[in-house]
Write a structure and sequence with these properties.
2 helices, 73 residues, flat, mainly alpha
Length: 73
């Protein structure tokens, strides 16, 4: 089980935190399959700020029908 206080402390100290097994592997697989067409259809960014090999998405996960699924057991 993940300790929220410990994760918050790590986030504050390091500026990031990696949460292993935060969601089931099956959810990641389903998201990948569902959103793959959007990744393919989205053009690469233009201009020097973002770089030529960057794609930008807004609210990407909200576009998935899988995100409303509860991941807690």
């Amino acid at each position: 089980m993940h300790d929220p206080a410990r994760l918050a402390a790590m986030l504050l100290a390091d500026g990031y935190v990696i949460v292993d097994n935060a969601v089931p592997t099956e959810l990641i697989t389903a998201l990948e399959a569902e959103l793959a067409p959007r990744f393919v259809a989205t053009p690469f960014c233009e201009g020097g700020f973002y770089g030529a090999r960057t794609k930008r998405f807004g609210a990407l996960l909200r576009r998935s029908r899988h995100i409303g699924v509860t991941t807690r057991k």
